[in-house]
Amino acid sequence: MNFFISHHPLLLLLLLSLSGVVPGGAFVPITIGTILTGRDVNRLSARLSATATGVCRLSARLSATATGVSPGELYSSANSAYNANDPLTALSFYDRIPPSPRLWQRGLCSYVCGDYGKAAGQFALDADANGDDGEEALWEFASRMSGGEEKGAEDVLRRVAGRSDLYIRDRRPVIRLAVRCYYDYFILKSMESVSKYISESTDIFYSDLYVGLLYYCQGEEKLSKLYLKRALETEYSERERGRDFMVKTGDLLLRTIDGTVKE
Predict the structure, then answer these.
(1) Is 65 among the domain residues?
(2) What digits encode the pLDDT tens for the residues 150-183?
(3) 215-225 burial by CB neighbour count: b if 16+ within 10 A, else e?
(4) CA-CA distance, 151 to 169, in Å (whole number)?
(5) Is residue 12 a part of any domain in this protein?
(6) Which candidate, 3, 98, 117, places its Cα nearest to that of 55?
(7) Largest separation between any pair of C-alpha atoms in the chain
(8) For the chain, which has fewer Cβ within 10 Å, the N-terminal or C-terminal residue?
(9) Of the listed ranges 43-57, 106-120, 196-210, the one predicted with least confidence
(10) What is the dihedral of CA 173, 179, 184, 185, to 10 degrees?
């Protein structure tokens, strides 16, 4: 085998996948002139997609291993930087952790940093793995809206709306109300839903946070600031400051509006 290829496992893995060899699977020769059926194409597409995901994860693991830093250490460093009002440094640590549909903190950090495409990708990945979590949908929507993808943002809400009569199977009433509020506001153009959502919610922090986000993703900084400040002045926020990632996210969004986040 060529020395270069044999000493570069990621390239070897890609070449094996293209030739039909998948680790743990049988060899399926694919040559020029091979006639593929629709099912063959679908299987090959799924195999390449799975292999590409594996390559990304392996690459991230090798990168972390090469520097002698474990994913756990990177995660801890990222959280410390985030809580120290330094989301850019935090994101540099999160990006070195192997991709995961449970790494929602990376999505929030990306959003705060203004990297809306990366944020949307992370939340979409999370939602695919956990469709019952309404917050993933809210943040993916906000990420796409902030990134100028209004059509993509509305598609997120329309997709969620078809899941049940409560629009989402999230067990938390405040999150179900938030998703409905966003749907009514952006799809049905109903302002009434916003005030109704706030008055019906028993969780003041989350209701104010998500109304603040609703205005933030539209560039309505004055209204966003009003609700974010209200969220951060709640008893819950005071009690959980430094422990709840969402409280810190609300704080960083407010700092972004005020221009006091580390550059």
Answers:
(1) no
(2) 999 999 988 877 665 445 678 888 998 898 899 8
(3) bbbbeeeeebb
(4) 24
(5) yes
(6) 98
(7) 69
(8) C
(9) 43-57
(10) 120
Domain at 234, CATH number: 1.25.40.10
**Tens digit of each residue's pLDDT (9 = 90 or more) over 220-236:** 999 999 999 999 999 99
Say how far apart CA 136 and CA 127 lie, in whole Å: 6
What is the extent of the structural domain holding 184? 70-258
In this predicted structure, the answer to whether residue 63 has a pLDDT above a threshold of 60 is: no
- Note whether residue 233 is domain-resident: yes
One-letter amino acid for residue 101 of the chain: P
Cα–Cα distance, 167 to 176 (Å, whole number): 7
- Is residue 4 domain-resident? yes
Distance from C-alpha of 258 to C-alpha of 30, rounded to nearest angstrom: 58
* Contact predicate 208/228, CB 8 Å: yes
Q: What is the mean pLDDT of the chain?
A: 79
Helices (H), the chain: 3-6, 9-19, 38-66, 71-83, 87-94, 104-112, 116-129, 134-146, 150-161, 173-186, 192-200, 204-216, 221-232, 235-240, 245-258
Task: State the pTM of this model.
Answer: 0.73
As a whole number of angstroms, the distance between CA 37 and CA 199 comes to 57
